[in-house]
């Protein structure tokens, strides 16, 4: 067990080393959300509004937590999928031949991915003023905890998929047919209200990212903004419902991811 | 010396294909043991089974007394391995790669510091410890991998084709390092190669073909098994020369291709005696000592030759290019 925890820490540590080294990756991961907020966000809020939204609710303010969710989604999946690179470039063999249990390798990887994603989310906080959001210490702490939870679930999910994938070609399919719909249906870009067609509303309810984005809205909107958003159904669920869904999902997916990785290698 | 690797009737099949076929051998502690055979002979499969990465279909393999199937974690503690393809994280520095390994194997921090310094110096990499592995040449990467494989004091170091794809100079340098390593640390070295000249460096070699061990001995003994050296003589009267050799030395010589062929265990000492005895009838004398190539040829009926890069190699090279472009 000590052996396993030590291995987990080692795998985790490597993710951190690499994160610190790959600054260009950080630039890319912050640049994309910035483009979304600046161009799509400002463009839409200048010409269209959210139907039924109260006065003073800016589209960019609505969109910002969703964009944070998007960044968490993509960063988590990319972290997990790096096992495919590790396999392709042989490094995975170095890990697999070491006297450590497979579950420790998988969990270390998932926790490492979640940590890196959370660190990146911290960087995204600098964009909050663009969205007219006032950050509070409590809100930031809450958001980072939620980001970690959501990312742990998503990294584990990515790990489960990546364990079965042997090439990057399969990854493209995975991105287009699973990850993009997850993002589009999460309520990040438009709210899950009763005006959305019923079939889509159903899909949005089963998209786990919906609860992640909703929870992030709880954390990022504070004071009167939260009240306004909640009244307009732009914050949809109760925070504890979101947390329960995310926690359950993290547990289940990290178990599945660990099992899939152990079986595949 | 005692046996550190014991392999008994080891077999591994992949569907219809039998990659390793009832292989048995033992490796003594402190030996440089070579597995010689063409690509696809079953060398890497055997190493993967010994390293617990692949379960055997039948038969047993024990490392330092531990069964590879029942005590995989114990076996892994006892071995270091350098794979055929690089297995370093090129985005980390040499030192970070070593530190990662040490942590994974539970090497205490102070032992790690001392040992990594020692090994980096031995492998000639001390001044590059803080460089990214991506900037290393093929030979440097290989040396770093050897250093890494030894970090946790393994009792057996597996080297799977350690010099493949390297230039002759680097290959020779790697061999110097490997021999020094064995002499200074006493670690057992189990290596595979399809380079015949390299197999000469081993204490003992097993020749493997189509998954079977067809011969196992010291390089010298294997060559002796061919009937030793050959002396070729040319002269104006070969028949007469043959008769005189028979009379004076009791040698059976045969005429072939316009020359006289004499098989002997030790040509180096026989040749001067022949020249002293029948020298007047000899125009030229040529000595040929058998190579491992001849041994392989006589055992399998085929010559080992270096094959083209396998499809996986080119896929990897492609992926690497793609990645470097990003």
Written description of the protein model:
The complex is a heterodimer of chains A (265) and B (326). Chain A has helices spanning 2-21, 23-47, 59-88, 91-96, 102-124, 137-164, 168-184, 198-206, 208-220, 224-231, 239-264. Chain A is mostly helical and 265 residues long. In chain A, helix 1 (2-21) runs parallel beside helix 5 (102-124), helix 3 (59-88) runs parallel beside helix 6 (137-164) and helix 5 (102-124) packs across helix 11. The longest helix of chain A has 30 residues, at 59-88. The mean pLDDT of chain A is 88. Chain B has 326 residues and is an alpha/beta fold. Chain B has 2 domains: 3-221, Rossmann fold; 227-289, ACT domain (Alpha-Beta Plaits, 2-Layer Sandwich), CATH 3.30.70.260. Helices cover 40% and strands 26% of the residues of chain B. Chains A and B meet through helix 1 and helix 4 of A and helix 2, helix 3 and helix 12 of B.
Write the layout of secondary structure elements.
The complex is a heterodimer of chains A (265) and B (326).
Chain A: H1 2-21, H2 23-47, H3 59-88, H4 91-96, H5 102-124, H6 137-164, H7 168-184, H8 198-206, H9 208-220, H10 224-231, H11 239-264
Chain B: E1 3-14, E2 17-28, E3 32-36, H1 43-50, E4 58-63, E5 66-67, H2 72-78, E6 79-82, H3 94-104, H4 109-122, H5 138-150, E7 156-160, H6 168-185, E8 188-193, H7 196-199, E9 204-209, E10 212-217, H8 219-224, E11 229-234, H9 238-249, E12 253-256, E13 259-264, H10 267-278, E14 284-288, H11 292-300, H12 311-325
Parallel strand pairs in B: 3-8, 3-9, 6-7, 7-8
Antiparallel strand pairs in B: 1-2, 1-4, 4-5, 9-10, 11-13, 11-14, 12-13
Helix pairs in contact in B: 4-5
Q: Approximately what portion of the residues of chain B adopt beta-strand conformation? A: 25-35%
| Shape annotation of chain B | elongated
Order of helices and strands of chain B: EEEHEEHEHHHEHEHEEHEHEEHEHH
Domain module tally of chain A: 1
- Reading the helices and strands of chain A in chain order gives HHHHHHHHHHH
**pLDDT averaged over residues of chain B:** 85
CATH class of the largest domain in chain B: Alpha Beta
Range of helix content of chain A: over 70%
Strand order of the largest sheet of chain B: 6-7-8-3-9-10
Radius of gyration of chain B: 24 Å
Name the structural class of chain B.
Answer: alpha/beta
* Measured distance between first and last alpha carbons of chain B: 53 Å
* Total number of strands of chain A: 0
Q: Please report the number of helical segments of chain B.
A: 12
Give the biggest sheet of chain B.
6 strands, mixed
What would CATH call the homologous superfamily of the largest domain in chain B?
P-loop containing nucleotide triphosphate hydrolases
What helical percentage do the residues of chain B reach? 25-40%
Number of domains of chain B: 2
* Rg of chain A (CA only): 19 Å
